[in-house]
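Annual report, structural modelling task.

Input specification for the D-ribose complex:
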Amino acid sequence: MKIAIGNDHAAVELKKQIMAYVQELGHEVENYGTDTSESCHYPAYGEKVARAVAAGEADCGILICGTGVGISIAANKVRGIRAAVCSDTATARLVKQHNNANIIAFGERIVGVELAKDIVKAYLEAEFMGGRHADRVAMIAEIEARG
Ligand code: RB5
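The model returned the following structure:
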């Protein structure tokens, strides 16, 4: 898979470790995040990854900030994006199976590196279940279309 990754200054170290891990798993990863600890604005990075995923330039995205929250809120403003904050592996699996999340987010200040790797693996290995879940995801798209 081709994966877009993005982060702000609060998540540079975890981003580097996750990039290496995703490559170890055999995926291609494109870095849209910052690589310095200089203070920056997380919405810009959430938007970059979201636009790459929405345009089909990446199959899915990973966003990391201090908590995972701000950057995911920003990403969710892009049409077609379903970004989900995950701080545990069960949620990471379920956001793909039930919500067909196309971006996962987490926080360097919240999860350790080993848990973050497990979260990424659980998400990447899960599959959307479709059926009644597809109807609900379609309802989310309808809300988005109504503006
Ligand atoms: C940056 O200090 C921090 O606010 C940001 O990384 C993120 O946690 C926002 O949701």
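The first strand starts at residue 2 and ends at 7.
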